[in-house]
Write a structure and sequence with these properties.
about 150 residues; about 85% helix; elongated; transmembrane helix; transmembrane
């Protein structure tokens, strides 16, 4: 098998789009990790406060935080799965072209799976954001004086 420089250039051109997608997924993972870190910090604070005695408000907020952390964990898992599948797509693009293997259907299937994982990640992030916003509104409304509402 004799691989020409032009063949390698063609393979790299094919891999550019998935690499850009991979960059976006990595950025998204950073956002998700940051959100999870903030949830964990708030959870630790409330758990420390609850050691001093029971507090219904803190317990309710902890339940919301636990739900949010599960959703973010699902989003992180989905994004990581997406990134792994994109890496496999890139590797198979190179393998297919250099070894002259007919991997086009597998590459397409992995790319579709990567997109489904990315969609799942966005859906879970959106669910977490909706829960956070609803909880914030509820807390805000509970603290407003009756006349202002």
């Amino acid at each position: 098998m004799n691989i020409q420089i032009s063949d390698v250039g063609h393979i790299i051109q094919l891999a550019i789009a998935p690499v850009f997608l991979l960059t976006g997924v990595a950025t998204k993972l950073g956002v998700l990790a940051n959100r999870l870190g903030r949830i964990i910090d708030r959870t630790r604070l409330l758990e420390d406060r609850l050691r001093n005695g029971p507090n219904e408000e803190y317990s309710e907020e902890l339940e919301v935080l636990y739900t949010r952390s599960h959703l973010i964990n699902y989003a992180i898992t989905s994004s990581t799965t997406c990134g792994l599948l994109i890496c496999l797509v890139i590797a198979m693009l190179f393998l297919s072209d250099t070894a002259d293997l007919p991997l086009d259907q597998i590459i397409a299937a992995f790319f579709v799976l990567a997109m489904l994982a990315l969609i799942s990640s966005f859906v879970n992030l959106l669910r977490e954001i909706f829960i956070a916003a609803r909880h914030m509104r509820e807390r805000h409304n509970a603290t407003l004086p009756q006349q202002v509402r």
